[in-house]
Design goal:
By secondary structure, the chain is of the alpha/beta class. It is built from 10 helices and 8 strands. The protein has a 5-stranded mixed beta sheet with strand order 4-7-6-8-5, with helices on both faces. It has a 3-stranded parallel beta sheet with strand order 1-2-3, sandwiched between helices. The radius of gyration is 17 Å and the shape is globular.
Length: 242
């Protein structure tokens, strides 16, 4: 299940990648009102790659819940449109969910860049999953379909809905972070400043764990992104390596 918004420059490569990793899966993409031609590109790709296309109001919570409700599989994987799955993803998920007490999990995160700041960012993010049992959406969260509906899907909060969702999964059974690594584009970090963005996101996570309200976190996040001048834009290939 993939929420998308204005991904015209990379959606072709992303769709081909997901279909190569999950050749038999139902792939549901929910567009949140793109205005850059993403929807038209998806329509051209739909038949060839066996896609299910939906539309909803913009917002990851709305889009992910809409896609999950329309899906038919016993397991739902929530994937960002700028992520790349490991080769072994389908088998790894299937093996993990053979254990009936496990209701979901996620992958380990890695940014496809060599700079030290990215090793700090992905390592601390993975450690947070292991220590606090919360995962953000770029880790590729997955769960059993019945568990998704039992907890009511993603909550309608302005930020950190994925962390809330993962915590809700944990209350239904065991969750586990797989050793397999999912890659996520560092384009956001490059645009806003890789060091300041890394430390801001770590601060945001710490404040979330301390119980700061979603509304306040969302407001600080809005101010950070609005006041951060674009430093460097990545090429159309979001996974280009420096």
């Amino acid at each position: 299940m993939v929420p998308v918004w204005n991904e015209a420059s990379t959606i072709d490569a992303f769709v081909r990648h997901v279909r190569s990793r999950l050749p038999m899966a139902e792939i549901v993409l929910v567009d949140g009102g793109s205005n850059d031609g993403t929807w038209q590109k998806l329509q051209r790709l739909a038949d060839r790659h066996r896609l299910r296309l939906l539309r909803s109001p913009r917002g990851r919570t709305r889009q992910m819940n809409r896609g999950a409700e329309a899906s038919r599989g016993e397991v739902i994987l929530f994937l960002h449109a700028d992520s790349r799955l490991p080769h072994s993803c389908a088998g790894a998920i299937a093996r993990l969910l053979q254990e009936q007490e496990i209701c979901g999990g996620c992958f380990r995160l890695r940014f496809p860049r060599q700079e030290l700041i990215y090793r700090i960012s992905d390592s601390l993010g993975n450690l947070a999953v292991d220590l606090f049992q919360i995962a953000l959406g770029d880790h590729g969260i997955f769960c059993r379909r019945d568990t998704f509906f039992r907890i009511g899907g993603f909550p309608e909060v302005p930020l950190m809905e994925d962390a809330d969702f993962y915590r809700a999964l944990k209350r239904q059974g065991r969750v586990r972070q797989l050793r397999d690594e999912i890659e996520t584009s560092p384009r956001r970090y490059e645009e806003l400043g890789r060091h300041r963005t890394t430390f801001f996101y770590l601060l945001l996570l710490a404040l979330y764990l301390l119980g700061v309200s979603h509304a306040r976190l969302a407001e600080w996040h809005r101010r950070f992104t609005e006041r951060s001048p674009a430093r460097r834009r990545l090429p159309a290939d979001a996974f280009a390596r420096a």
